[in-house]
Write a structure and sequence with these properties.
It is built from ten helices and 15 strands. It has 349 residues and is of the alpha/beta class.
Length: 349
């Protein structure tokens, strides 16, 4: 009886936590500029907006006791079929529709002093490439070059830090494609394409990105898109798909200068074996770097600061990999020599 009463009380607490958070946070979540909400172990909660790097401390009534946060995370874990215990203190999940399908990353004791979580909201609007040009995210020459590269089936990696606009740019570029069978692989649905024959595969604890990539190769794809490369097995499968006549586009937390080292490290970390450097160079044509830069008005804005063509070096170690060919540099605002879209064979000579 006591156990049943405890479980019932725990269920009520969890349900109340979701209800409370939904009611109190919805006014903030409805604001399209909001990108992240961070709940710290000390009970403080911070809001991040797209237009600023500085967080906003949420008022007292939008803060939750540790037991409420823990109950919320345990409820989300149960809904997602994930395990969230002291033995498995990390949770990656997606929140329900009423919370805008936000991606949640949660931690608990013993790795933190108390339960904490971060919500990452997917973009509510998907600006077209011309809109990004108007905003100054990239110039017309850059937009034309990337559009041409995409249509000529070049493999593109978009890199940058969190909230630098990688997914927004990827969506704007891919939205220009028509008449192809496109497979999109994401753990959180963020890419929304106008192309009719588009299939979306959702990954998670039960279906990994690596498994999705393997499955996608048997689904007659013209192009494979992966929202974000995170683990070595997925990286290896993605590189293989790129060299097997399935051009792709992906995002990665890296810089243009470190992209090869980053991919190399992900594969070693996951598999314990070094990847084939030749495969990496052969699989990537262009790296697009996005950054948050401070505008003259003092507001942070997203900008393509560099487009790099990756040239193959067969006798090179990741430590010696450096930026090959600077095409545009936002520091001087001038376009360097426009690269020719060469074939893979010409690039590798």
């Amino acid at each position: 009886m006591a156990g049943g009463s405890y479980d019932e009380d725990r269920h009520k607490t969890a349900k109340q936590a979701i209800t409370d958070m939904s009611a109190l946070l919805l006014p903030y979540l409805k604001q399209e500029s909001v990108t992240d909400v961070c709940f710290n172990p000390d009970g403080l909660a911070y809001l991040y907006r797209r237009s600023s790097r500085r967080p906003v401390l949420l008022p007292q009534e939008v803060r939750f006791a540790p037991e409420r946060i823990l109950a919320f995370l345990e409820t989300v874990a149960g809904m997602s079929g994930a395990t969230f215990t002291a033995e498995h203190p990390r949770l990656e999940a997606r929140l329900p529709r009423e919370l805008y399908f936000a991606r949640v990353e949660g931690l608990r004791d013993p790795v933190t002093q108390g339960p904490m979580m971060v919500w990452r909201l997917p973009p509510r609007k998907h600006p077209a490439l011309k809109d990004l040009v108007k905003k100054g995210t990239l110039g017309e020459a850059e937009a034309e070059f990337l559009t041409k590269a995409l249509r000529e089936r070049k493999n593109i990696v978009i890199v940058g830090s969190t909230s630098s606009g990688k997914t927004t740019l990827a969506n704007a570029l891919l939205d220009q494609l028509r008449g192809e069978r496109i497979l999109v692989i994401e753990d959180t649905p963020e890419l929304v394409l106008k192309n009719e024959n588009t299939v979306y595969l959702g990954t998670g604890e039960r279906f990994s990105a690596a498994e999705a990539l393997k499955a996608s190769l048997r689904m007659r794809p013209d192009r494979i898109i992966i929202g974000e490369l995170r683990d070595g097995n997925a990286v290896q499968n993605y590189l293989n798909s790129c060299v097997s006549a399935h051009p792709g586009l992906c995002t990665l937390h890296a810089t243009a200068a470190s992209v090869v080292s980053r991919i190399y490290g992900l594969v070693i970390q996951e598999t314990g074996q070094p990847p084939d450097l030749g495969l990496i160079y052969q699989s990537i044509d262009y790296v697009v770097q996005l950054e948050q830069v401070m505008g003259p008005d003092g507001k942070s804005r997203r900008k393509v600061t560099r487009i790099t063509r990756l040239e193959r070096r067969t006798q090179e170690s990741p430590a010696s990999v450096r930026e090959r060919e600077r095409m545009w540099d936002a520091q001087d605002g001038e376009a360097a020599r426009e690269p020719e879209l060469t074939s893979k064979g010409e690039k590798d000579r």
